[in-house]
Design a protein that fits this description.
Elements (H helix, E strand, L loop, with lengths): L1 H26 L4 H25 L5 H28 L7 H21 L4
Helix pairs in contact: 1-2, 1-3, 2-3, 3-4
Organism: Bradyrhizobium nanningense
Protein name: Membrane protein
Keywords: Membrane, Signal, Transmembrane, Transmembrane helix
């Protein structure tokens, strides 16, 4: 499915960005924001891969599971993007970008739960 391949590709980009931010955090002064951004990208890249695999196996409700996975992409991008822009540019991506991203990631996890509960057997 095209959406699954897109999600896997996005997860790969998120993983690469997460590793790059981890390196930047390790070598930069006062770069704790980058470590947090890295963690969110790496954790949610893995969650996207797992969600996509569960969808392919039919263990999650298709529509809800896809929304959860895309929620992980959007939420992690907002959260990590905001922290990274704050680190390098000194201002936020836009007001409440990180909390919005965090909320979207939480909703994504709740959607995974719902997708598992209502999946067709």
């Amino acid at each position: 499915m095209v959406a699954h391949r897109l999600l896997v590709g996005l997860a790969g980009l998120m993983g690469a960005a997460g590793v790059a931010l981890a390196a930047a955090s390790a070598h930069g002064a006062d770069a704790s924001r980058l470590a947090t951004a890295s963690a969110m990208l790496l954790f949610h890249a893995t969650a996207i891969l797992a969600t996509t695999a569960l969808l392919a196996r039919g263990l999650l409700h298709g529509g809800i599971g896809l929304n959860a996975a895309f929620g992980f992409v959007i939420g992690a991008a907002l959260f990590a993007g905001d922290l990274t822009v704050r680190q390098y540019a000194g201002h936020s991506l836009f007001p409440y970008a990180a909390p919005t991203g965090g909320t979207v990631m939480i909703l994504g996890w709740l959607a995974v739960t719902l997708a598992a509960v209502v999946a067709r057997k």
